[in-house]
Design a protein that fits this description.
CATH class of the largest domain: Mainly Beta
Strand order of the largest sheet: 3-4-5
Number of strands: 12
Structural class: mainly beta
Number of helices: 1
Strand content: 15-25%
Length: 276
């Protein structure tokens, strides 16, 4: 019992996590590497796990090459005393380590499970079908891999179809993925172009500056001679005084403004006989 050691993987079914081991560690078999794993198996003096990329990592004794796995992607791993086997992503069994009794020379075929003894190996063959990423014979890989190709991984595509993207370029101004709301020049976010703001005569979006009757942006037209005839444009109309005094009388007192003072001036001129 002095060589007994215990191993556990800190995860639930369908999840991944780090490995912790305890017990005998005479060959480093209870000192796992850091990283994220989806499966783990313990042998006599060595240990192996499948990391989140599907590769097998082994540690501990390696006197027969049992801790030197081949490259590739695997869905299952099993350990004997001095040999190791795994099921790759095509369903084939690959073995390495001691082979004095042929225990590391598997037959061809597609397998769903593998188990190792001291100097022998057994597997469950998947007849006339393909094993999917979770080891299901005839499975369809429909729900067991994420967008990174990791069985039972949690990586997802964003709204642009980018694996593990952040939806940064496909949301509208309201934050809706693939939404159709657009922000207008005044900062209003909606999908109704009829209420988009306009630019005023000052070049300001949403501004309220307007041109006066002389075409001056922001002007009030007061006392302005638009047509350059010497008469302020707001005085062009003849006051109804009952006398034919001409258009010039709009600014009767010649102060550049048209207001009540012009009426007073005209009345005074009439009363005093200045107009006939």
């Amino acid at each position: 019992m002095k060589n007994l050691f215990i191993i556990t993987i800190l995860l639930g079914v369908g999840y991944s996590g780090s490995i912790e081991c305890w017990g005998s560690d005479s060959y480093g078999q209870s000192t796992p590497p850091s990283g994220t794993f989806t499966d783990v198996a313990a042998g006599y003096y060595h240990t192996c796990g499948i990391d989140d990329s599907g590769s097998i990592e082994c540690w501990g004794r390696n006197n027969n090459g049992q801790s030197t796995p081949p490259s590739g992607t695997f869905t299952d791993v099993a350990l004997g005393q001095y040999h190791t086997c795994g099921i790759d992503d095509s369903g084939s069994i690959e073995c390495w380590g001691s082979n004095n009794n042929g225990q590391s020379t598997p037959p061809s075929g597609t397998f769903t499970d593998v188990a190792l003894g001291y100097q022998h190996t057994c597997g469950i063959i998947c007849n006339n079908a393909v094993v999917d990423c979770t080891g299901v014979c005839g499975g369809e890989d429909t729900s067991c891999v994420d967008c990174l190709g990791i069985p039972w991984g949690d990586a997802e595509e964003d709204c642009n179809g980018v694996c593990e993207g952040e939806d940064t370029s496909c949301v509208d101004c309201d934050g809706i993925p693939n939404g159709d709301n657009v922000e207008d020049n005044c900062g209003m976010c909606d999908n109704d172009p009829s209420n988009d703001c306009d630019m005023d005569c000052m070049g300001e979006w949403g501004g309220n500056a307007e041109e006066d009757e002389c075409g001056v942006c922001g002007g009030d037209g007061d006392g302005i001679d638009c047509n350059d005839d010497g008469i302020p444009d707001d005085c062009e109309e003849v006051y109804d005084t009952g006398y034919d005094i001409g258009a010039e009388s709009g600014d009767a007192n010649l102060d550049g403004q048209c207001n009540i003072l012009d009426i007073v001036y005209l009345v005074d001129q009439i009363v005093n006989g200045a107009w006939y």
